[in-house]
Design a protein that fits this description.
This protein is mostly beta strands and 94 residues long. The protein has one domain. Helix content is 0%, strand content 64%. The strands form 2 sheets. Strands 2, 5, 6, 7 and 8 form a 5-stranded antiparallel β-sheet that branches. A 3-stranded antiparallel β-sheet has the order 1-4-3, with no helix packed on it.
């Protein structure tokens, strides 16, 4: 069965998530002050894999072998606008 899943990652942490092996990362969006939501289309019948995620600020050094997922703008009223970029490592067997 295909479905869309959402997970939330904190801006200041690395995440290792288990996802179905057949997945496609769709979108990212700011969630509160220090978290980002990530949506993925998944095939729930597909064997699981682990995937690491990290959030980087503009101008930060990026790992060479990670894939770009999306960009999120933290533009809440009364705060300096910050721009965050989500990257994912290669999928590894669970």
């Amino acid at each position: 069965m295909r479905a869309v899943w959402k997970f939330t990652i904190a801006i200041d942490r690395d995440y290792k998530l288990e996802l179905p092996g057949d997945h496609r990362l769709l979108r990212v969006r700011q969630h509160g002050e220090d978290e980002i939501d990530v949506w993925a289309e998944v095939d729930t019948a597909s064997p699981p894999v682990f995937r690491e995620f990290r959030v980087y600020g503009t101008g930060h050094e990026l790992p060479a072998d990670w894939s770009y997922v999306g960009t999120s703008f933290d533009d809440a009223p009364g705060r300096l606008t910050l721009v965050w970029h989500v990257y994912a490592g290669e999928a590894k067997s669970a």
